[in-house]
Amino acid sequence: MSERHDDVTVTAWALAAGAGDQAALASFVRATQADVHRFLVHRSGPAEAEDLAQETYLRALRTLPTFAATSSARTWLLSVARRVAADAVRTAVRRPRIRDLGADTQQALERVAAPRSRAQEAVLLRALIDDLAPDRREAFVLTQILDLGYAEAAEVCGCPIGTIRSRVARAREDLVRALRADSGGGSGTGSGAAPGSASGPGAGRAVRSAPH
Fold it and tell me: What's the domain range around 106?
């Protein structure tokens, strides 16, 4: 996994790249591509993430010369990625489809009553995050997985900080309910789980440290 650089360094690379520095451009792309791809996987699904990431960088490179660093380059780039994903939804041919969760996720979901390893819990949690309401999933991924501050996430989403805080709190509640329902082996959905349902040994820990 590539080293995570601080925002000051990444922003300096973006400014230099906008001025024509090719080495800085290469550093900027390397430093941000993992976060962009991870965000788009959660935003649009793994099947679309690669193409959307490429479009994100194409758009970003066209506007880098006008980037004024009023926010960090990472925040600015994730805003571009969000617009790319939204445009893809608006222009896509709408047809029913099932999100590709992968074989490991399907196995975990089919054996909800069986004891799970930490790895299986991580796979299941990733599926539960993908099933969150889009606004809540986006806020949760930005702040809890990509480590953006609430103010930065609000800038990416174009909404007040309080809205981000509320969405993250609701996302956590949704995840805890779903994990409790899953650990209890009940047949109902997460929203129907009783507040006192038993939680699996790693459930609370998993919500606090969602898989990257």
Answer: 102-208
